[in-house]
Amino acid sequence: MKKKYQNAFFLFGLLVLIVMLTQLDFKQVWNGLRHAGYWFFAVLGLWLVLYVFNTAAWYIIIRSQDPSPEGMAKTRKVKFWWLYKVTVSGFALNYATPGGLMGGEPYRIMELAPKIGTERASSSVILYAMTHIFSHFWFWGLSSALYLLIRPVDFLMAVLLAVTMGFCSLGIWFFFSGYRKGLANRVMKLLSHMPLVKKWAQPFVEKHREQLDTIDQQIAALHSQNPRTFISAVLLELSCRVCSSLEILFILLVLLPSVNFFDCMFILAFTSLFANLLFFMPLQLGGREGGFLMSTTKLGIAASQGIFLALIVRLRELTWTGIGLLLIKFDKKAKKNS
To answer: Helix, strand, or coil here: 207?
Structure first.
């Protein structure tokens, strides 16, 4: 990637991160860190492992795209730990960007394109983003079904769970359709009718129709020709969602030694669903805190403990966002010195 683009991604993310830091009450942050103690470092270390799941899902998608000798030669240029760095930096930009996928995905494409070509880089990033979101729908749906099985449910909760499961079923159907037919052309056609971006999207579609068709063919091929790769990528992402419940478990153990893993799954499922409905907010500011407060209260956990949970998770997100942005700068320096 050109230095000016790396600098642009880094400076944009840094600016948003500084704005987010100014919103914190530093006295509350210090008290929260003192209370969390070593569990805060356990939470940071957990995400060191969880990003391995994310990277592995993207890595097997890249390796499955072009089995020809030429394609495999290009794929060998993509090293797993380099991809891990790009994954962490991509998520850092996603956290800091309103609209979520608006920042990290262009960065990933631009980093990967010199190694495997723009079309393969674009299709692999789109496929990974689809798989990442697809796993969320499965996680929300499975968590709702599990809640029905092991927790007492009143009428209002039953209605809420039914709506959630219906919403997840619709999302799963939409992504299955996208995997079968491709999604690039469909998304660009949708953008071509949106008021603010149609002037840009319509010429883009006409100019890049052949490339978009190729990307859609590669997306469809993963689902139809490589079902094992498709299932493996989805299971890796779903496993990441389930294992990330450990973060909530680690934090709540500071306050509630009797907390159980399934309640932590329910808290994460509701909070992530609620926060993703507010996708237009950078770092899902406010949405995630509100989700934690509502979900913990519903499970009989005190509001003060829900606020503490939200604070520690927010600090973890800010810390890893900072790490991801530094890795962009580190890569720039490494290339300069090489």
So the answer is: helix
